[in-house]
Amino acid sequence: MEKNICIIGFGEMGKRHAKDMHEHSNGKVKTVAVCEQDKQRYQQGCEWLGYVPERFTSVAEMLDKVKPDGAIIASPNNTHWDVLRHFEDRNIPLIIEKPLDSTFDKLLKIVDFAKSYSAPIMVHHVMRYTPIVKKAKELISNGVIGELCSFRFCLNGGGGHMHNFRRNKKSGGGQMLEKATHDLDIMLHLMESSPKKVVSICKQQVFGGDKDDQLCCYNCDENDNCNMRTQKGNSQTEGTKDIHMSNDLCVYARSADIADNELCLIELENGTFGSQSNNFFISGYYSRIYEIMGKLGVMKICFNRLPYEAEKTYQGTIEIFPRFGGQYQRFEFNYNKRIHYNGSPGVSEHFNDLMYNKTKKVHSPVDEAFAAEMIAIAAYKSNDLGEYVTIKDILPDSLKESFSRIFDKKNMT
């Protein structure tokens, strides 16, 4: 039996979800409706997708008319809670794009909503579903590097995300919340512990400036001399993620107010500790490297081949360096030219299982996503205060006790 889904937000990720769900289910899952305010974005998304879902501009109207078997919330970060509230009293399996939302208050509302919602909600932490992360989890669980002690997670890349809503703290939440939450989620997933306290330094060193907030690259007089320019219409080329003109916004605008260079030290409840750093102005170079130190050795996860070359971005490695001169191990991964390290097939398969009631277990639940995002919330608070922030101190009383036990195996079902 075929399943019909609807998608809220038909831009960068919304259109990809639609295509992934259709292709990875061999056509058994089809997007029959989308809620998208921008007509041009909708039309371009349909062209990219290859068929035409019905368009709505009201979430409630769409859900009442279509009555889908599943739904995906892929609208901009700061709209997730406003969309999710329309699902109250509906028994519809959901995917929510990460992060859950862009502000602490809305994150709390989503956590509270998820506790009483009758259908499964999975957060699109797609990296959990990648073969490379699954293998890392397996190796750690098998004790290859022994008892875990510490970690170093590092992400370096260009400023592509600064051309859209993510450049602004109010709408995007900041890169530690918006982009690095991928890494923070995997950190907690592999270390199997909630975060305890955080200290950070977050600075805006390159982007932002005095340009008009409505300025786009294609109509800028300085386009020819700007190394951050984009080309109008390049979104129609194969493999491009973004398809609407808001992704041509100037990175040097007044409203571009988020940090572009961030470092965070983190202590977890189980006593392990480490760092997360991310930089978003190193154009022409990309690296995502995790190192996990155990009592028996070190695991190094390199998500792309270094030095950076375009044809190597779809290959990654895991290396095991034993402490006592044991056997060195190396595992290689090819992502089949899919973004997110070939994690989309796993996401689609899992959501399909949830819709068909083949499983009720959610592998990327709301509470674990919330734990990762609380690192970012605490990091920005720490940066403002210039001191350590204990996460429980900023949580409401109703969450203080349960937060520290989110990753306890005895509580995982």
Largest sheet: 9 strands, mixed
Strand tally is 15
Q: Overall pLDDT, averaged?
A: 91
Helix proportion: 25-40%
Order of helices and strands, N to C? EHEHEHEHEHEHEHHHEEEEEEEHHEHH
Rg on CA atoms, Å: 21 Å
CA-based shape = globular
Please state how the strands of the largest beta sheet are arranged side by side. 14-13-12-11-7-10-9-8-15
Short description:
This protein has 13 helices and 15 strands.
Structure characteristics:
single chain, alpha/beta, 9-stranded mixed β-sheet, 6-stranded parallel β-sheet, 13 helices
What is the strand and helix layout of this fold?
Elements: E1 3-8, H1 12-24, E2 29-35, H2 39-49, E3 54-56, H3 59-66, E4 70-73, H4 80-84, E5 94-96, H5 104-116, E6 121-123, H6 131-141, E7 148-156, H7 169-172, H8 175-178, H9 181-191, E8 195-203, E9 261-268, E10 273-279, E11 287-294, E12 297-302, E13 315-322, E14 329-334, H10 344-355, H11 366-385, E15 389-390, H12 391-394, H13 397-403
Helix pairs in contact: 1-2, 1-10, 5-11, 9-11
Task: Describe it.
The structure is a single chain. With 413 residues, the protein is of the alpha/beta class. It has 13 helices and 15 strands. It has helices at residues 12-24, 39-49, 59-66, 80-84, 104-116, 131-141, 169-172, 175-178, 181-191, 344-355, 366-385, 391-394, 397-403; strands at residues 3-8, 29-35, 54-56, 70-73, 94-96, 121-123, 148-156, 195-203, 261-268, 273-279, 287-294, 297-302, 315-322, 329-334, 389-390. The strands form two sheets. A nine-stranded mixed beta sheet has the order 14-13-12-11-7-10-9-8-15. Strands 3-2-1-4-5-6 form a six-stranded parallel beta sheet, sandwiched between helices. Strand 1, helix 1 and strand 2 (29-35) form a beta-alpha-beta unit. It is globular. The two termini are 28 Å apart.
